[in-house]
Structures are given as C-alpha cells and as structure tokens.
Design a protein that fits this description.
alpha+beta
Length: 208
C-alpha cells in the first residue's frame, strides 16, 4: 500500500517538475524572441564605452555581492573585443577580455582567459544567449561552472543581463545586471592659466 501511494504521489510531482523546467530560465530558446525588437546587433550594442551595475545572488537566492563594471567594445568587421573591469562591493577588482567573432548565420563565438573552450552565442530578435564554462578565481574556490548568459535589448538601448551559473545541474549563483552606454565625459573647464593667456592676448590686442 505504501509503495503504491508513493508511486501515485511521485507521478504528479514529476509532471509538475517537468512543466516547471519546460518554462524555466534554462529552457528558454533564442527562437522564442524571433519576433521581438529592436534587433540585437553586437557590433552596435556592444560597442564603445558601456557601464554596468549588477547583483549576484547565491544558491539560496540571497544577494551575496554587488558590482559596478566598466566595459569597452571595439569591432573590426565581424571580429570584436570586449574588455570588462569589475569593481565589487568587497573592494575586489577583476579584469576580463572577451574576443568575439560574429558568424554569417547570426551565431557568436566568444573566448576569454578564464573560459574553457569557446563560448557559443545565438542571436535572435532582441536577445542574445551565450553558453560557456568558466573557471572561478582561486580565491572564489576555483570551481568550473556552466553558465547560461542572456542579454535582452530594451527599446531605449539599455541591455538587461541575467546569468545562471550551475554545477552538476544545480544553480550555484545568479547574476542580474543592467548595461547601457556610458554617459559622455563632461568637457574639461578651462584652467586658470588658460584664462590668464586669454586675458594677456586680449590686452595685447587692445594695446595695438
């Protein structure tokens, strides 16, 4: 009787789990965003100076770290580089450089020193999905994690970034961040010496 009851309970639970996975973050496909706009063109979206702010959540869902990141994207045809400089709330600084290749079929290849093999990206509509394996720094445990990285381009040009880092299929961490073009630097105010030079030039003109 107990065995039969266990089986009867296990079947609906398995169906619920299967349905939940089917509509989960990990199960999203690039084709799901085929009809969305604006178009995610990495050569435009990931170009120039970019600023990002994000939060990292641990396996329990609690926030464990915050960061601000400065990025710089440069492209020559289908090949580009994306440099990242993270500054965490702990004071730790992390640097990374991605080398990117955009292929004619809309796929993307991405490599970086702490990435094992090649990252594989797929672009469809307003979204980019990038999957790769990353080795964490030794001070973070040195673990190798499987990463699913989604970038969603918003109508105003901001990019919403959500990533899940997994080990043995279990979510170990999640990242949520915004990415947007960095504001232009304000013009440098004239120095005192510049004013003095302008005044001297004006006095000399008056004297003539």
């Amino acid at each position: 009787m107990l065995t039969a009851l266990t089986v009867l309970l296990a079947v609906p639970l398995a169906l619920i789990a299967l349905k939940a996975w089917r509509f989960s973050f990990a199960a999203q496909r690039p084709a799901d965003f085929a009809s969305t706009a604006p178009e995610f063109d990495p050569r435009r979206v990931l170009s120039g100076a970019i600023v990002s702010e994000g939060v990292i959540f641990g396996p329990t869902g609690a926030a464990i770290s915050r960061f601000v990141m400065q990025m710089e994207g440069r492209w020559q045809g289908p090949r580009g580089t994306l440099t990242e400089s993270f500054r965490y709330d702990s004071g730790r600084v992390q640097e990374r450089r991605w080398d990117l290749t955009l292929h004619p079929d809309g796929s993307l290849t991405a490599t970086a020193p702490d990435i094992l093999g090649d990252g594989r990206g797929e672009i469809c509509g307003s979204a980019l999905r990038l999957r790769y394996r990353i080795r964490l720094p030794e001070d973070a445990g040195g673990h190798v994690l499987d990463v699913i990285d989604w970038l969603y381009l918003m109508p105003n040009g901001t990019v919403m970034n959500r990533s899940q880092m997994r080990k043995f299929g279990i979510t170990m961490a999640e990242l949520v961040a915004t990415m947007r073009p960095a504001p232009p630097r304000p013009a440098r105010p004239p120095r005192q010496a510049d004013h003095q030079a302008e005044n001297a030039f004006g006095d000399s003109m008056i004297g003539t």
